[in-house]
Amino acid sequence: MGSSESAAEQSDASGGSSWFADYFGFDEHGTDLKTELLAGLTTFLTMSYIVAVNPQIMAQTRDNEGNVTSPGIALSGYTDDQVIQMLAVVTILASVAAILVMAFYANRPFAQAPGLGLNAFFAFTVVGAMGIPWQTALAAVVTEGVLFIVLTAVGAREYVIGLIPEPVKFSVGTGIGLFLGIIGLEAMGIITGEAGTIVALSSIAESPAAIVSAVGLFLTVALYARGVKGSIVIGIVLTTLAGFALSFAGIGSGSLSGDFITEGAFVAGELPQATYDITPLAGAFLSGFQDVEAFTFALVVFTFFFVDFFDTAGTLVGVGQAGDFLDEDGELPDIDKPLMADAVGTTTGGMLGTSTVTTYIESATGVEEGGRTGMTALVVATLFLVSLVFVPLAAAIPLYASHIALVVVAILMLRNVVEVQWDDITHAVPAGLTIMVMPFTFSIAYGIAAGILSYPIVKTAAGEFDETNAGQWLLAGAFLVYFAVRTSGIVG
């Protein structure tokens, strides 16, 4: 009774005994408005880098000669900078849509945004390697989102979880980490694909941009290790400013948001004119349903769904543990509500023009600051809306700076590998294949497929057939057919 009164007094003192305190239940959760505001600000600072990074990954970029340097979304009649700004607006709106559902429906202090890994899968694998139109890729995102909503609404997540082998679940994060790491290091000029060894160290000492990006990376991880809030954002900004300074000093040449690997240079110029009109992107997914190849489309949808579902579920449990939200069985009560927030965000994002939205592990920083209710999430959503003012800056940040975030996140994702039972060969094989195939084929989908395909085979070979189920064999058979068809050239 005393603790409840104390919480109520804190709420009164901070001005939170009004509608916010009543709606979000400050007294029940032992928090107050001041604490929730600080928690929301902390979460936003740690994840706000996505406003600049997601557009840089999702948009197609070209060099000064018009050659495509990075696959992704391109709009006829619009410059790369304009498309990047449109995607920055869409990134913000999709994030806000998901976070508002989290705040008012789930009443949890978790925040969402387009996920790193899935946006790279969208651009580099689906659009780039597989040659699928970006409109069709968006259609797959919307389809995945609707599927997520339906399965969450009917409570079918337990059945879906049961179909996916445990070693594959635990290894996907590490595989995605390696996938992101290659993309990030290549964009920073640290590694190159133009070598007889397939992947090699670039001539870093000959590239001012590569030197600055490498210094920026070490600065960022140092800030992160020190526990500095917003360390990734700070690292990106400082690296960008350093590049601009050297550019103005006459070191190197290139375009404002240019690909320094092609141009070999820093950039200097005026900020692009603000672009907020997203009508060319919004609704583009509808045309993506035309002339789709069913099996390939299904694989893309499955991959989006799989990574989104398990990444979100894992993040929710992890952040929930930090906030002491879990029950005695280690489960997050009413997890379907925050899952619904992700599903709504993904569907909205796909309709507007971006990849899958997922819950961010950075939400843990806000929880550690005392965030306990949806008020924390509401603060994050509000700050995302405020960041619309800075949309033009998204196109001014060069790849060598923005992709530092990918490498830092990649390093953090590698820790998931400790969850795999490496001393059990029936776990080691599917986990190992999942992790290796993703970066080596530049496809998250192929990595997941390889792991699922191998699991029932090694289980049966080890005399553990009874530990597999019919659904796993059906998935394995489907992926075997897909690999055979796709690698034979029948599917383009």
Automatic annotation (TrEMBL):
One of its GO terms (molecular function) is purine nucleobase transmembrane transporter activity. Its main location: membrane. The chain crosses the membrane at residues 83-106, 113-132, 138-156, 168-192, 198-225, 232-251, 294-310, 375-394, 400-418, 430-458, 470-491. GO terms for cellular component: plasma membrane. It is a multi-pass membrane protein. It comes from the Archaea. Keywords: Cell membrane, Membrane, Transmembrane, Transmembrane helix, Transport. PANTHER family: XANTHINE/URACIL PERMEASE C887.17-RELATED (PTHR43337), XANTHINE_URACIL PERMEASE C887.17-RELATED (PTHR43337:SF1). Belongs to the nucleobase:cation symporter-2 (NCS2) (TC 2.A.40) family. Azg-like subfamily. This is Putative MFS transporter, AGZA family, xanthine/uracil permease.
